[in-house]
Amino acid sequence: MDHSGMPGMAPTVSTVDTVGAVLFIGWAVAMWAAVAVLAVGNRRAVKPWLYRLGVGLVGVGVVGQVGHFQEHVTQAGYWIAHPYAPAWMTPWADSFARGMGQVDAGKPALGMEILHLVGNFIFLAGLVGIVQITHRVAGQLKARKWARMGVWMQGIHGIEHIVLTASVALGASRAIGLSTWFGAIEPGPALVTYRVWWHFVANAVGTVILGIAVYHLWKEKRAVKESFGLLGDVETAAAPAGSEEGSASALEPLGRR
Fold first, then answer.
1. Where are the domains of the chain?
2. pLDDT score at 37
């Protein structure tokens, strides 16, 4: 077991490890680029394609968190079966960590810390996506309320991972953060137990919040689509062509529908 209480990385790094690490980091970068586009777009005239971008961002964030959370579920399951063994990662997560660890091969735990940092920021981008896609809707939306709650929680969790990663990168003898009791817990079963379950609980709560936010986003999708001007044309076509209602709807500005 390495100094972090997490599994050590194999010294040999394959091309698959490297490509996987680059693609995983690229996934996170692409999601935050989409967040930036949505944030800027929300301050300008309505563009219906921003709605589709937002939906895609949220969807990819959900997929990412499902994968992220299953990693913590399997770690917790492995701990239940082997409570005194080093913490375990799935083969694909281990591969990503090996690829990311190439930034400094002298720090075996660094790749694992970077992996979890990137995974958490993919999750955070999905939550921010819900906040952004509901930005134009006036009044209180339950989806936005829950997503904001998730952004606060996951933002704090993200800071934890930044500190853990930075401490290892800067040469600390062990990762420093809330999940290691700021480095006070000695490497061994106690550290593995505390860290595995700390991150499992944090991600379980965050995943539930994301699920509730997505559920309400689905229920409130009509108001969200209206805010992007995506229901106006459908409603106009549905009204009789010569009716007063159809004429009024046709003249109403998109931004007011």
1. 15-219
2. 97
